[in-house]
Amino acid sequence: MPPSPVPLFFAADHQLQLSDYLPLPRTTYLQENTAELPPSHPSTQLPHVTLTYATSLDSQISLQPGLQTVLSGPESKAMTHFLRSQHDAILVGRGTAEADNPGLNSRFSDDGQFAVGLDRQPRPFVLDPRKKLDPSRTPKLLENAAAGIGRAPWWIISDSEDVDQTIWTNVVRAGPYAGSESGIDWETLLNNLAATGVRSIMIEGGATVINDLLKAKNQKWISSVIVTIAPTYLGDGGVIVSPPRSNAAQNEARLTQVRWIPLGQDVVMAGKIH
Ligand SMILES: NC(=O)C1=CN([C@@H]2O[C@H](COP(=O)(O)OP(=O)(O)OC[C@H]3O[C@@H](n4cnc5c(N)ncnc54)[C@H](O)[C@@H]3O)[C@@H](O)[C@H]2O)C=CC1
Ligand SMILES: Nc1nc(O)c(N)c(N[C@@H]2O[C@H](COP(=O)(O)O)[C@@H](O)[C@H]2O)n1
């Protein structure tokens, strides 16, 4: 089969334009053998958090709950894969894991030619505080890890869940969890992630995760926002990104240091939130 053409993202070296929004170059390595990791990380620094997703013009990230919807074109999708290679970890909510059966690995090298090696793959984390997800419903994550083209997934559950260590081997605690209204305590979670060696994490979704992180009280944990905007309206009934307002008089989340990068038919917007 002839090799597929190098996506425009790599050919045009848009990586440079994104560099202000990326974490520091990866220097640490999460090891597959967790026994080799120190019990807690000496640094108290929280990870760099990149919030990144693809949206329609009507602020929707999928056609309906539970349905995976292709929004990014090949160029912006390639950018997402580049971003994945720049982060230690990647996080999605249980809804996304169940709906999409995602791979969450990086499938391009920096020049777009090859898949990156395991040392550049992010660790996938699935946020599932009530431990409702059956790991067998996310076969791609497990297959990628078995094939050596992605890291083994870890699960994020609340403090109150019991864990059967024979099934739930790779677990990070999210602190207490009272329900989706209040969400999780991101500071606790980010501290716990840092303790496993995570220095940078990209958060891809879905809407429940994004809307919680964009709440006024949680925005401070976001280091940068990188959103792909696709030239399409999905219409009523989709999964909407729109955080709840805490103060009607104020814009809840105005981005600064904004940069727009056209990529194929899409535009990518990068910014900071504080
Ligand atoms: N276009 C894009 O870039 C993306 C689209 N999606 C789409 O989003 C949809 C899934 O979105 P949702 O249904 O909202 O599911 P979700 O992926 O946000 O997961 C919801 C579940 O995750 C947990 N959770 C999420 N946020 C939490 C928080 N702050 N605190 C505690 N627990 C939390 C809870 O168990 C909750 O039931 C799918 O259709 C998927 O295809 C997902 C990711 C990216
Ligand atoms: N960047 C982007 N564009 C879209 O159009 C999307 N639907 C998504 N979805 C996210 O990517 C995950 C799928 O990843 P794999 O290709 O299976 O590795 C999906 O779960 C969403 O997080 N992203």
UniProtKB/TrEMBL annotation:
The protein's role, per its UniProt record: Catalyzes an early step in riboflavin biosynthesis, the NADPH-dependent reduction of the ribose side chain of 2,5-diamino-6-ribosylamino-4(3H)-pyrimidinone 5'-phosphate, yielding 2,5-diamino-6-ribitylamino-4(3H)-pyrimidinone 5'-phosphate.
Gene3D superfamilies: Dihydrofolate Reductase, subunit A
Residue intervals of the Bacterial bifunctional deaminase-reductase C-terminal domain: 47-268
Catalyses which reaction(s): 2,5-diamino-6-(1-D-ribitylamino)pyrimidin-4(3H)-one 5'-phosphate + NAD(+) = 2,5-diamino-6-(1-D-ribosylamino)pyrimidin-4(3H)-one 5'-phosphate + NADH + H(+); 2,5-diamino-6-(1-D-ribitylamino)pyrimidin-4(3H)-one 5'-phosphate + NADP(+) = 2,5-diamino-6-(1-D-ribosylamino)pyrimidin-4(3H)-one 5'-phosphate + NADPH + H(+)
Protein name: 2,5-diamino-6-ribosylamino-4(3H)-pyrimidinone 5'-phosphate reductase
Pathway(s) per entry: Cofactor biosynthesis; riboflavin biosynthesis
Record bears the keyword Oxidoreductase: yes
Superkingdom field: Eukaryota
GO molecular function, one term: 5-amino-6-(5-phosphoribosylamino)uracil reductase activity
EC number: 1.1.1.302
One GO-annotated biological process of the protein: riboflavin biosynthetic process
Organism: Coleophoma cylindrospora
Family in the record: Belongs to the HTP reductase family.
Protein keywords: NADP, Oxidoreductase, Riboflavin biosynthesis
